[in-house]
Amino acid sequence: MSDKPKLAFYWCASCGGCEESVVDLAEDILMVAGAVDIIFWPVAMDFKKNDVEAMEDGSIFAAMINGAIRTSEQEEMARLIRRKSKVVIAYGSCAHMGGIPSLANEFTRSQIMEYMYQEAPSVVNPEKTRPMLSFKHNSQNVTLPEIRNLVRTLDQVIDVDYYLPGCPPTPKLLKQAVLTLLSGEFPPKGTVLSPDEALCEECPRKESKPSDLSFTHFYRPHEILIDKTKCLLSQGVVCMGPSTRAGCEALCISGNMPCSGCFGPTSRVRDQGAKMLSSLCSNISENDETGIDKILDGIPDPVGTFYRYGLATSLLRKKITEDV
Amino acid sequence: MFNSNGNGTPKIGFYVCHCGHNIASMVDVEEVQKFASTLPGVVVSRDYKYMCSDPGQELIQKDIKELGLNRIVVASCSPLLHEHTFRVAAEKAGLNPYYFHMVNIRESVSWVHTDKLSATQKAKALTRAAIQRVFFHKPLEKKSVPVNPDVLIVGGGISGITAALTIANAGKHVYLVEREPTIGGHMAMFDKTFPTLDCAACILTPKMSAVKSHPNITLWTYSEVEKVEGFVGNYKVNIKRKPRYVIEELCVGCMECIDACIYKEAKYPDEFNQKLSKRKPIYIPFPQATPQVVLFDPETCIDFKSHRCKKTCIESCDRKAIDLKQVPEYKEINVGTVILTTGFKTYDAELSPQYGYGKYPNVYTSLEVERLVNASGPTAGEVVTKDGKKPKSVGIIHCVGSRDQKAHKWCSKVCCMYSLKLAHLIKEHTGAQVYNFYIDMRTPGKGYEEFYDKLMTEGVHFVRGRVSEVTDWALVPEEENKLTIRVEDTLIGVVRRVPVDMVVLAVGLEPRVDAGDIRRMFNISCSNEGWFLERHPKLAPVSTFTDGIFIAGACQGPKDIPDSVAQAGAAAAEVLSLISAGSIELEPNTASINEKFCSGCKSCIPICPYSAISFNDGTQKAVINEALCKGCGTCVAACPSGSIIQNLFEDDQIFSEIDGLLKFADIELEEMEAEHA
Fold first, then answer.
1. Which of B602, B606, B637 sits opposite A278 (nearest CB)?
2. What is the pLDDT of residue B675?
């Protein structure tokens, strides 16, 4: 083995998009691969847990872990990698804030199981089979990891040094992060490796944002023809840009879709969804309750809109239900 | 969480007040005191009978000096009452006053609870919240801004005149801006004033001339305020002077031009006389108009319409004062304070069609009758009907547009008294039988009830009941060619029909049509009814929620001359007090934008109730004018990137406070769980 810094990638509850984003480095991946040894990357190379266990503690220079934590296996692997790594980076929205998987915190585990294995229209399961933690098969004991009742962010399970935000993080930010770490200049612990202003700062439509939004109606993107040149909020489309950290260079907006908030809040905001709600509601044109309700009817799924990526890290965190 | 904020490790002094029995009877103050002494950071914890008393304050000051306290928490009454007291006490002991925080365990706890145990628990929870909060307090400095000694008064009625003279006599410069061509307002239209029956003109016109000749008053009539910017002590005001087509400085009011006008007969309705007489296109509103300067009505002057007039008026003016090419003049002034005395309008009687105003010629409004009885009015003081006859009977209908679910719910306050006055004057002028139709007679005020008594001895008739209609449909021969007033006389329980020659509608007072625009321009509030809103109905009746803007007279609500004059004096005193202080201190609980992090999303700009936020096009960031900011926190809530910070309400402080509050809930939960186990 060379003495180049060792890099590890791991995935937990995620869609695989974060892994894709590593490949999206394109030719730059050669630069990264040249500078480091990738010693663990289950999605691309064949490694076993034993291989990691065999490594010396702290021998991995940096581990990038994506995905939220929702199973006992993910907890175990996250803790193992933490032990073996000098620097752990929560990679992507799910590791950073819980991501889309943490929307499951709106439901209880049994509600989810009931739906997935029984009620979903595509399921045929007359025997009411459910996944079990262990069972005997051909006299062998087979085990499955347990799904926890709560979907958590990476830093709710292990100590995290840095965060690379985004769903997924952009190749540019990944490259910058790797170069920064390799340079030996470590930013303060807990830093989110992206600019700390809101997205409006780098939005190409910033100039077209009026100073008085005064919302009279909210639309979902499929409900109207969106003017490609004008601020989405000025068109009544909920754009999370004002409450979302910059760094993506307004990718979604360039594709004529509103920002959905995947970079999370700025360092000054405790709860991104609450902040955006507070901001939008401050600018609603109506003053009486029925008028306000009517306008807000244009946002049928507030949790999915304002907490799409951050329910696990929000003040709400989880719906309290009886079978907690 | 131990944040020292620059004055060392937090050393907190906690004081809980008994407030006599007010708090101590419902909250176990000793228990709260003991509880606080166990909390992190608390160096000393005491309870005392009256913390706001001098010995109470000295207790704090002594502890600050002897124990080196650098945070003070007092659990007592509402901060509205004594926050200032304790801040000053802390400051006198050498501590920055903003290291002090107050917990309200009286209005929020002892006065609203009935169970001593839970009230004490709540007091403890609030105490812990406050103690956790002060860890994050920072020293703040009050900013001071100078007060420009010049004053703007908007509206030249009796309130504006009184305030202007009071301030000018104190040696301060006043700009008095009046929309109409003359000052004097409604009072100038009246003949006599109640209850003394002294002549309105005799007591008003000397004041009007005093305004005109006062070296400290700049009088701009026929002018309107167009724009107001700035903040207390430093307002910039733009005023438009509408063209009179007469050079004010040259005109001496000889009125030769009016005689020389090509129109030999006056043929246009005279607004000042409530359109009961006619005027020419060039006119002066009334003989004592101030300033004594004529003006043109371009709507009716031939030269403005066709440019083909012989302009005999110009020829007649030796002083060359007429300038038909005059254009509006725009003035910009700087003042430190403003008094709004924009007055009222009377209710439009046509909106209550049952009384026949506009339908029957002999139905008059009270203001029209004021002009009729006035010696300089359209009939030279003769009270006559439209056909020129002296009425033999007159009915005065009270509460027209007032105390009426279909019009205004409020009592207009002055109508009972002016109806009595008009009844007296009509009777005096004509000897007619005068009937007052009233719901309730409301005559509180010095000499008012006595005036009512006097009227009853004069043989004026009083019928208690709201009039249902005025009609010319005669049912009996006595009603022929008369107006019949139909009313239920509620004192004798019958419906009466009273035929009269003349009906007077005692119209109520309502806010001016453009009161809303004025309110927005000066950034003050209006009540639901549209009257300008005072800061406090009892304790700050002429102040508004915008510092440096005061209100007086009927723009704040219906009121008579004595009340308007009293308010004008009060407003003048408020203004002089600010000027005299020379500068004012601004509370430092303002918001500020962290320019480095502002993304320029503009979410905060439209929602600021004080218009304190503007957008800097150069930097593409929002900026808060600290002098305008009142610290309401609206923008802080609206800033989606958390880039606005409000002093005394920072996230650290609030989260820590909530944490302190909820910790108590945790303990309660544990106790509950322990019980269940």
1. B637
2. 63
